[in-house]
Amino acid sequence: MTVLVPSIHYLALLPIFIFFGAALVLMVASALSAKSFSLRLATSTTVLASVAVLVVNVAQWSYVAHHGATTTIAHALVFDDFSVVATAVIAASMLLSALVGHDWALRERVVGVDYHVLALAASAGAMVMVQANDLIVIFLGLEMLSLGLYVLVAFDRHRAASSEAALKYFLLGGFASAIFIYGAALVYGATGSTNVSSIAYFLGQNVLLRPGLLYAGGALLLIGFAFKVAAVPFHAWSPDVYQGAPTPVTGFMASIVKVGAFAALIRVLLSALGTQMDTWRPILWVLVALTSLLGASVALVQRDVKRLLAYSSINQAGFMLLGVWSANVRGVAGTLFYVMTYAPVVIATFAIVTVVGGVGDEHHALEHYRGLARRQPWLGAALTVLLLSQLGAPLTVGFYAKYSVLVAALDAGGGALALIALLSAAIAAYFYLRFALTLYEESDDDASHVAVPRASAVVITIGVIFTVLFGLWPGPLATWAQHATLLFLP
Amino acid sequence: MHSSWWLSALLVVPLLGAAGALLVRRTGRAYVVALTSAGVELVLSIVVASMYNPHVPGMGTFDFATRHVLSAPFGLAYDVSLDGISLLMVVLTALVVFVALAGARERRREASFVTWMLLLTSATMGSFLAHDLLEFFIFFEFTLVPCYFIIAQWGGAERARAALKFFVYTFTGSAFLFAGLLYLGFEHQHQSGGALTFAYGALAGTTLTHSASVWLFVAFAVAFAVKAPLWPLHTWSPLTYAEAPTAGSIELSALLAKLGTYGMIRFAVGLFPGALASVRPVVLTLAVISILYGSLVACATPDLKRLIAYSSLAQMGFIMLGVMAGSKIALVGAVLLMFNHGVITIGFFLIIGFLEQRRGTFTIRDLRGLQGPAPVMAALFTVVMLASIGLPGLSGFISEYFILIGAFATHAWWAAVATLGVAGSAAYLLWAYQRVFHGSSDETNAQVPDATNRERWVLVPVVVLVVALGVFPRPIIDRITPSVTQLVAHVEPAGLLK
Description:
heterodimer; B: mainly alpha; two-stranded antiparallel sheet; 2 strands; globular
């Protein structure tokens, strides 16, 4: 008897291998070394691994350009521009988060390499998600990502809130995963496969006389994803977890989880269930409307910056979903462009929140930001730019993010939904501006300067340069996003 | 055709100044850097104005043009050019920021203040230079950000409310513009089958049904009418103008209001001539109401700064009347008034700012008998006021005259009612003058010092400009006429040319 080993395309898998490899090397090395392992070395390893992945992404991009998109390991993973771009975003986000995490770990005296090992493994999980072409593989990636995150959220052992947030996240996340896998099982029952391409093929060839099973499965999958991207009404965990988690982890969650979840969501809804568009689009319509409006309006009353940014990120998720709802090339490119540009901005924002948080990671009330721009003009200016970008102000990259999904929605005949989203942006503008204005207000007491360590300063600078540079010239990013989409949509 | 680098320089010089001011940080030096860059900008704009050639073959009346696509999927391009109408606005932009910085120096956290001012200049410059609808929108919308921060940080007691009201009104108005421009872009793409583009020339060639063009005109007009402001969308302006710091009021009323009327001319009228026949009576009526309402409320308001805000409402009504009258001469008058009103408003707000520094109030009742202690200030105010009323020989006259004779020829009834506004402006301004400068001054007012040398150096050139433009407006009229002629020929094929 022979065992059939499916052909493996190693170039396609290389990013995942690099991240897992780096995680393993770090773990083993720290176990073997007699003294406590240097944090600097661990961070350098993560940064190097991320740079290596970015280099590999360039090679992958040109490979796909020459040989076309393909699937590998018995069609379980897909190797196309979409996955390459999304992987690159994850790698870049990992790089930036690692730098922020480094300074945070130094400040909080977190020893050991666990932080980096978990972050690398979770990112590898997100990479599996963006490459997955099978519901089971998506689930695998999702679990890898989530398991790492559960521990990362609990990483701040000095604060009870951190453990509490982790428990909340773990319980609700476990439910969501179970719901997701149940949905996958039902879809398998309805279509006879868990493979995205096979499901699409089956649904293209057959008309289901009793689509109930498929609908139930699809709905459960959607709920699983909605939980991960914190779409209303599955968002309740996110403010608590964002607030409780160590701040660099919050930035990590806001960027990398969104990339992974949205890439997989797009594959499931548009590739696998593309034929069922008329069924899921109305549901998504409601999700978009609720998510964008509720995120923006609840953020208005927040006094804690991390909670405020959690609701802001819910609002942003509404916009990302808007691109998916559009269900056209423009929309998918728009969502990809959105996550691509949101990731560095949000990481840089949380980098600032991390440094302002101070020792103990506790100064997160809006009050602590009063007069920040007066005491530290550059830090204040940087935060202003980043907030303006999240607001969607022109001449920042955030404007084009909103523009790209709104254009797609209008193109898909969603005038009303675009208007709702725009309205939510107007509401959101209020709290972003109020936050920005707080930075320039006079503070009563002589609050102390916040120390900005070098690595965090680099991240913040990169975030601001990214925001302004691509705010003036979004050409290359938009082209990549569009190019990445053309190949995989029919 | 001249090189487009001149226009890029106009965009970049204020940005360099802003960056320089941020880097220097030290209060005094940041101010010097900012004032220098504003001065360079002003010289540059005058050089560009003197170089401008309205007869470049194949370009209409546009000069200095260039177009670079920045992102094809987004239809985004860097596309700048200049015609007679935008030329005048470019000079006004540079003039306003220079005078505002020179005359209304803000000493609290000066480096941030001048940075915001220069960012605002660059954004405004970009709006006037943009020859692409999306690019225009981006700059137009970005002007909100520096404005918001200037009002909210350096404004009066109610600054937070004023800034928010301003932001919400204009942001909401812009949403209509945004929806309209996307619709137009898609419509053009579907018709041409090419890439998404918002190039002005390309969009102007889009075939639209009558109802589509009316809807689009309305969407655009809402955004521009909020900005201008035009009755009944003006309600943000008195509070905002009054609460903003002097430099902010100057920027808002002398310059940013012109973005509204400029957008109306260039985009609403220029892109949707098919809608004009239907919407003209409505917009003309709103313009006339703005004139009368502004004049009436200006008579009744007890606050000098609000009085100028309402008088601006009336003046913007005149400009809209000229824009929508469908007559060449009225449109020339409207463009001229956009410039002249800008210069006059600078004068008004500067003097009011100087008075406020001395007396700490804008209330007319508390300012009395200032002519005795401050004769020079009173004299300068008189000239500016008479120009605003429209006294022949001063700059306000020729523009209002053009607007009214143009409008009389095409829409006599509206023009007739609007003429009452001229009388109205005489009434509220002279009455205000009487109450502020005449009469016997109480003890505090008697101590008010006259204009300092520095203030004279800022005000006198403004007043000279007011007189010069009244006596010799020819160079300006020569520059705007070709562009206006072309625009009117494009939008009025029926031959309303008069």
